[in-house]
Specification:
The protein is mostly beta strands. 3% of the residues lie in helices and 35% in strands. The strands form eight sheets. The chain has a four-stranded antiparallel sheet, with no helix packed on it. Strands 2-3-4-5 form a four-stranded antiparallel sheet. It has a four-stranded antiparallel sheet with strand order 6-7-8-9, with no helix packed on it. The protein is globular.
Length: 507
């Protein structure tokens, strides 16, 4: 196990793009092509390399993200921050159509083929309101648009109680891929935090649908149901990450579940047909902002339905009267952020790569946007404070969790907070990369480390697995630029360089 097969230096790919790569680059396609057939891979390139592969596109084209269709057509979409959306035709990269879109937003998630409609996900983390577009595959025409923050007259808008229409800059960004259920023709999208992040007094009310999951019809964009994890969230606990679908028997009844390892430190199981709460349990080592979840509603136990501004545990977040918080556990980074969990259906276990530890928050009074009588301009920071460096430093864990009950079955402590995600295989292995360059394989039942290989540069991307001619491989991208909030917390790998490497191992 773990025989190193080959690697390639991706010298022209920006390291910051590595975390969004869903599979491997063209060399893998060429190396692993079967006779007379080309393997269908999802490929994401950095801006420079991607520009070289396009045709009939303006010279100043700067792609933000590229995602390939899953309809088998081989067509691709390329989003830019210059108000253009391109729909490309397979390997020739001929432009099929071009459409305008809001330059202040960014293509952040995925697209999903549903009948003849492609769903593009947009969002941003500054002063905007997130939205999702349904786009006709053949013409580029917008079929529908659904905002994640309800507008005037829409259900949920009443949960913005400031009286100044601050929902117009309410956040609710989209950052990650939704999950599609073909049986019910529904996709489940995790929604980002409300804006501003840390000044909850600026936006009294529950602030739907920030920090939520929405069940949406891909045909018309209608919201079937929503579940909010942290109402009036003062912690920046967005819930943008994946929402896996699981079928399970509960109390003798077959149930269709959508589950989520939330940034707020709890693992949730919901009925995906109606959004009702089934179970929730703490999965992080330390959690102090609420004593638990209401067994009927799933809301935090210290949620006050009669209060417009939620305090939760006093001291766990800043307020205008007392700007600096005490300890917040989990930290502002959350129990798990964007990095994906993995599921082993044979063992019935979800593997959560967690971030463990605590931090604090400094709240400042947020000023209004310029279109609402204030001085804040578009794209200015709109967060109402900042988070303070954790002390002691954060660490990580790999946890095997029962997705039906949320119970943690096995807990493997890691030296570093994990920013890469997990991969589970049918051979009962779990692969995880670490910021010090170690790529490890763990036993899926015991989480004992079975094998490791240090690639010499940090890993911030989840691994992928594939097979060619009956032989299984695992590929992982390494060398991503480490964010400034990581290295101060883990000084040992501070001298590692961004390297943009792809490593492939044989099993």
């Amino acid at each position: 196990m773990g025989e190193h097969q080959w690697y390639v230096h991706l010298s022209r790919v920006d390291g910051a793009d590595l975390k969004v790569v869903k599979s491997v680059i063209q060399r893998l396609r060429e190396t692993c092509a079967l006779p007379g057939r080309e393997i269908n891979l999802v490929v994401c390139f950095g801006p420079t390399l991607l520009k070289d592969l396009t045709k009939d596109i303006p010279n100043d084209f700067q792609p933000f993200e590229t995602i390939k269709s899953i309809d088998g057509s081989g067509r691709e979409a390329k989003g830019t921050q210059e108000e253009l959306l391109f729909w490309m035709n397979g390997p020739r990269k001929d432009q099929i159509w071009k459409a305008q879109w809001d330059a202040r937003q960014a293509l952040k998630g995925h697209m999903k083929v549903a009948r003849e409609t492609m769903t593009f996900i947009y969002g941003d983390s500054l002063d905007m309101t997130g939205f999702i577009d349904g786009t006709d595959l053949n013409t580029g025409r917008q079929v529908w648009r659904t905002y994640t923050i309800p507008g005037a007259g829409e259900p949920g808008n009443e949960t913005w109680k400031d009286g100044k229409e601050r929902w117009r800059h309410g956040g609710g960004s989209i950052w990650e891929t939704a999950t599609y259920d073909p049986d019910t023709d529904t996709f489940y999208q995790g929604i980002g935090n409300a804006g501003p992040d840390f000044d909850a007094e600026y936006r009294p009310g529950d602030n739907k649908w920030a920090a939520s999951v929405l069940a949406i019809s891909p045909g018309d964009g209608k919201i079937k149901w929503g579940f909010q994890y942290t109402p009036n969230d003062p912690y920046d606990f967005d819930e943008i990450s994946e929402h896996p679908l699981i079928n399970a028997k509960i109390n003798g009844e077959d149930r269709k579940l959508v589950v989520h390892a939330a940034r707020n430190g709890f693992f949730y199981a919901l009925d995906r047909t109606n959004g009702s709460f089934i179970a929730g349990k703490q999965y992080v080592d330390q959690l102090n902002w609420t004593p638990g979840l209401d067994p009927k509603t799933g809301k935090p136990l210290n949620y006050d339905p009669n209060a417009d501004v939620q305090i939760y545990a006093p001291g766990s977040h800043g307020t205008r009267a007392r700007p600096l918080s005490e300890r917040l556990c989990p930290s502002v980074s959350g129990g798990k952020n964007w990095q994906p969990s993995a599921y082993n259906p044979q063992l019935g276990l979800m593997y959560i790569p967690s971030i463990e530890g605590c931090s604090s928050i400094q709240t400042t009074e947020q000023k209004d946007r310029d279109d609402q009588g204030g001085t804040v301009k578009p794209r200015d920071r709109f967060i109402g404070g900042a988070f303070m460096p954790p002390a002691p430093r954060l660490y990580g864990a790999l946890k095997a969790v029962d997705p039906v009950t949320g119970e943690t079955k096995v807990n493997q402590r890691l030296d570093y907070a994990n920013y890469a995600g997990a991969l589970a295989t049918a051979g009962n292995l779990v692969f995880v990369g670490h910021i010090d360059g170690t790529f490890s394989a763990y036993d899926a039942k015991t989480l004992k480390e079975l094998w490791s290989f240090n690639v010499g540069t940090g890993i911030n991307a989840p691994a992928v697995s594939y097979a060619v001619n009956g032989k299984q491989y695992v590929a992982v991208l390494a060398g991503s630029r480490q964010p400034n909030n990581i290295i101060p917390q883990a000084s040992e790998p501070k001298h590692t360089s961004t390297a943009s490497m792809l490593y492939v191992f044989g099993l």
